[in-house]
Design goal:
The protein is an alpha+beta fold. 34% of the residues lie in helices and 24% in strands.
Amino acid sequence: MEYSYEEVMSYIEEEDVKFIRLAFRDAFGVQKNISVTPVEMKKAFDKGVPVNVSPIAGFKSCDAGPVYLRPQGDTMAILPWRPDSGRVLRMFCDLYTQNGEPVTSDTRKLLKDAVDAAAQMGVRFKFGTRSEFYLFLKDEEGNPTDIPYDNAGYMDIAPLDKCENIRRDISLTVEKMGMIPECSYHKSGPGQNEVDFHYSKPVKAADHLTTFKMVVSTVANKYGLAADFSPMPLKGRPGNGYHIDIHAFDEKGNNLINCVTAGILENMRDMTLFLNPRDESYSRLEAIVSPHRVMWSEAGTSSPIILDSFGSEPFARLRTPDMGSNPYLVYSLLIHAGLSALRRELSLPDRRDRAPRLPSSRREAANLAAESEFIREIVPEDIIQEYVYQYDKK
């Protein structure tokens, strides 16, 4: 539900809010923000708050003038770890130019456009998330080490699992911010954890993942620990995955996941760079995806995409993305890949057919993305530059 300026200001007054963090994201999904006071909110809603985003990844073409942040009322969330008196409110923003046009490289806008394109075809998407992270000790100066917080294994319990209380605090904190965790548990790696969320509409699901990463880092810091979402924090240990449960229906409620999955498979090699943007992403893929081919399988088996048809709502689980990816961009690509297949009534390939391999390196994935017509039709040039030509900056 969208809230008007008057409703937002009423909430700010009732909750004794003194600072509002206007948040947005860079090309890689990293959250950025500025803080304003309540007196600035009228300007924020009417015209937006001007910021210089040209130093931020993905906004190279915005160096001619400021970009304006316009808060979205339905994203209001009190930061529970801030003081109860003089509270802090977080709001996600959409980005606009001086002429009032949406900034094309704003990945949240990109996802909204994808959702609109699906709606025009009578298609609804929802995404669920399964997110993994490590917890490491800090040294005497407060810097992260590579020493895991515990040595527990898969679904172990306390006292072996020292992360139990931290996962509980994370779950309680995100609930206060309007999110509903499905479950949480210790993963296979030492100090490694997973928190799962029920499926939501695409933009809300992406907002939730962005919020979740902020909460995990904040709660970990409270315990004197460092959270690590990187694909392979420890050599020889399990990597951090980000599994996405994909649901798709038409206006009559018919399940479209088979055709959507066919579209994702068709474009997966071209999309891999954006699902796995780091060098170490490919070490993780080599370790977890077996076989290393663009294929699907049924629940209970190992494959990049698993089709689960045992519940009331069949869905596809995409296992290849990692936590370094930008959910707004990833969901946009998944939606467009699914719509492309639906337009052509594409069928799932036979699992017995020999499928192409996933890219084995970031450079290979970058080359595929740079040459892809599918990517060029969807992803703005500023974002492609950041991902494809990242090597040139090293």
